Amino acid sequence: MLYFWKKETNSNQTMIQKIVLLFLIVGIMSACTKDDICTKETRTTPLLVIKFKNKINPLLSKNVTNLTVTTIVNNDSIDIYKSQTTDSILIPLNTGTNNTEYLFTENNTASNPGNTDNVNFTYQRDNIYINRACAFKVIFKELITQLEIVEGENWISEIEVNKSTVENEDETHVTIFH
Amino acid sequence: MKMKHTLLFFISLLFFGTYLGKAQEEKEIIAKDSIIKNNKYGLRLGIDLARPIQSIVDKDFSGFEIMADFRITHRFYIAAEIGNDTDDQIEENLVSSTKGSYVKLGLDFNAYNNWVGMDNAIYAGLRYGFSTFNQDLQGYTVYTGDSTFPGTIVYDPISYSGLNAHWIEFIFGVKTEVFNNLFLSINLQLKNKFYEQVPENFKNLYIPGFNKTNDYGNFGAGFGYGISYLIPIYKK
Q1: pLDDT band at A77 (very low <50, low <70, confident <90, very high)
Q2: How far apart are CA A145 and CA A71, in angstroms?
Q3: pLDDT tier at B4 (50, 70, 90 boundaries)?
Q4: B29 and B42: one domain?
Q5: CB–CB of A168/A49 below 8 Å?
Q6: Under an 8 Å CB criterion, which residues of B touch A?
């Protein structure tokens, strides 16, 4: 009887020890994991989608030859696109202010400065919660565009706002006719 | 012997019902064999040691918890925990702090077969958890993922008060009597929240008693180390 009793307590004790050890490991592991990273797939602040169309036939898209898109941040000019021939672009809007100024230059190459038009984008901002890792994004509302008119010099003939609320990058927000 | 017990232990976790039947048989045998009434029934009161320790180690957390259980049958205990947590969630893109109280109420089932006079437990239990809390969003970054206009930092504290959350909790643990009527325990908790008041344009990042929430589902987890004292009321 005594023999069995001893064996019994021993096996029970080792089982308790194992469980306690398991819990300690789980406890330590759960205490030091940081697993939240904002992934690239998450839809955060959207870019502005602009399509270029033919001013003569507004149904047809039209490439801009050697387009350079520039904005000024803290007195530094930053090129978003540099001498690219395209009929659609995605550009960021400033999330800290209610307007962003862009310079659109066509026929911009190393040898030719091209023709520059100045467009001002004005909007209202809403901060929207995404998740723990990415925190907040901005959606832009009441978007207005303003083309600076230089008599006889503009290559852009008209700018149309298709969506005044910029929520995602699935739709065209602005169409530029040239 | 050892194999049999290990096996029984795991089976008991999966099939409470079947094990209950077996436990009933054993109880009857014990009752026939021993005349001495040696099972202590009473109120067991204690505190969670993990929370005060974490309060010292982790400057972003402070909290305490009182735990109590009352034995109602040979294997079942009514159990409750009550506590208070303050936790700062310091993330890469936001800082938020949560403060509030919680209550957990439920039953524990002791699956461990004690020898006469022993009072240890390997237990599993179920709880209903309820918490009321306030959440302060202290600041955040507007995420752009863009290098031209990198995220603007917004320092505009917003307080969300009177929030609440409800959850169901599965608890699993071990209790050992280290001295007469003094117990040390360790437990693991798995939680599933079924209702919460979500602040507008934000989320509950931490819920007192439920702990950290996640973006992928309603699940939460926790653990506790308890020290408790049994106030014996009667023997059976």
Answers
A1: confident
A2: 15
A3: low
A4: no
A5: no
A6: 1-2, 5-6, 9, 50, 54, 89, 91-94, 115, 120, 122, 140-146, 148-149, 151-152, 154, 173-174, 176, 186-188, 201-203, 205, 214-215, 221, 223
Predicted TM-score (pTM) of this structure:
0.76
Q: Which tops the pLDDT comparison, A113 or B46?
A: B46
Of the candidates A90, A158, A82, the one whose C-alpha atom is nearest the C-alpha of residue A119 is A158
| Domain residue ranges in chain A | 1-33, 48-177
CB A154 within 8 A of CB A118: no
CA dihedral B56, B57, B62, B67 (to 10 degrees): -80
Tokens matching residue A105: 């230059």
pLDDT in tens, B43-72: 999 999 999 999 999 889 999 999 999 999
- Domain hosting B111: range is 38-235
Residues B121 and B4 in one domain: no
Note the pLDDT of residue A2. 46
Query: Residue A10: helix, strand or coil by DSSP?
Result: helix
pLDDT tens digits along B137-164: 999 989 888 888 888 888 889 999 999 9
Signed CA dihedral, B160, A35, B217, B220: sign only: negative
Residue B53 class from Cβ within 10 Å (0-12 exposed, 13-18 middle, 19+ buried)?
exposed
Helices of type H across B15-80: 16-33, 50-57
Q: Are the beta carbons of B82 and B105 closer than 8 angstroms?
A: no
Bridge partners of residue B110, in order along the sequence: B123
Residue A96 has which token pair? 């800290």
Residue B151 is part of a domain; what is its CATH number? 2.40.160.20
CB contact under 8 A, B1 and A7: yes
Cβ contact A71:A99 at 8 Å: no
Neighbours of B56 (CB within 10 A): 9
Please give the pLDDT value at position B160. Answer: 94
